[in-house]
Structures are given as C-alpha cells and as structure tokens.
Amino acid sequence: MINYPNGVKKNKKVQHPKTFDGNKNRGMVFEDKINTSNEIYRTKNVAIIYKKPTPIKVVKITNTGLKQGKITEAYYERPSTTDYNGIYRQKYIDFEAKETLNKTSFPMHNIHAHQIEHLSRIKAMGGISFLIVSFRAFNEVYILDAGVVEKYNHTTRRSIPYEVIKKEGILVPQGYVIRIDYLKAVDELYFKEK
Q1: What is the pTM of this model?
Q2: Tens digit of pLDDT for each residue in 105-137?
Q3: CB 79 within 8 A of CB 71
Q4: Could you point out which of 59, 72, 140, 181 has its C-alpha 20 to 30 Å from the C-alpha of 161?
Q5: Candidates 3.40.50.300, 3.30.70.1130, 3.30.720.210, 3.40.1350.10; correct CATH number of 28-52+79-190?
Q6: Alpha-carbon distances of 159 from 2, 64, 109, 137, 151, rounded to whole Å
Q7: Which residues is 83 bridged to in the sheet?
Q8: Cα–Cα–Cα angle for 76, 77, 82, rounded to 5 degrees
Q9: Cβ-contact 134, 98 below 8 angstroms
C-alpha cells in the first residue's frame, strides 16, 4: 500500500531507527529526524514542508483478497529531483538532505548533477534552495546554499571541504523536540536583516 506523504498514515507514531548498519541505513535516521521536525513545523503552523515521494510506475498489482491490492512490481519512472519541498515565510523552499561519514569534506558524488541543476533553477526563480548535510562523525548538521554547491560542481575538485561548509554554511541547531531545527539556520541564511 502506498500512502502520501511519506508512506505514513495520519496519527501513526513515527518510530525512530536505533541502529546504523553500514551503508544500508545511512541517511535514514537523519531523514527521520528531518521528517519529525517537519511534522512539528506543520503542527505549529510554522511551515508546510514534506518529503517528496519517489516517482514510481506500477507494473503489477496482486489481488490480496482485501479491498486493496498489493504492488508486486514497480520501477522508478524518472530520477527524482530533491528530497523535500514546501513553503516557509511565503517563499518556496526546496532542499536535498545528505549524510556523510567523511571528516574532511562532503563528496560531490553523493549528490546527482540533475539535483544540483534543480536546486540552481529554484534559486534562480527566487526560491530558497540548499543542501542540508549531516557530518555524522562530528554530530553536526549544516545548510549550504545551492550557489555554493553549484560552484563546487563546476570545479575539478570532487568534494566540498568541511572547512568551507563551516565557513559558508550555517550550523543547524539540534534538540529533543525539534530534532533538526533547520528553519533557524534558514532564517539566518536567507532572512537575516541586512
């Protein structure tokens, strides 16, 4: 069964994965924290931001004897753009979430060229677009404007140095209630009084 958004039924308690099993779950705990934060933002009428569903084409549905069938065969219809989008402070917001174990840089191969292009187009149209990066080794999360990501996409260097992210990005507060309070960092980067 596919539910929208995020495949989570309304009023269902979100369970937080407890373990990190190599590459298999990398980013899932991080995305779960962002999803929980987005739920709180929506509840408090701060922002409406959702994780985008991955576009799939259903090929085969098996009858399970219930009212609904079970999808037994599907494929990705087209490459997805970015992980999240919505509206905040009357502005369209769009971002990609990534996590790395690397201590010295964010490898550019972790984000696809079509995603960088998408973020750049959002920025060019006046929207807010950024990369949110979790440096797992340091328990630090940063937002980095799409312009910085695009700049590093057009260089021979295939990573963004950690020191550059610390300098040009904004450190995201982390807490118990709002796990990844990235909108505070968005305020600092995009809405700070000049």
Answers
A1: 0.77
A2: 999 999 988 899 999 999 999 999 999 999 999
A3: no
A4: 181
A5: 3.40.1350.10
A6: 36, 48, 8, 17, 11
A7: none
A8: 75
A9: yes
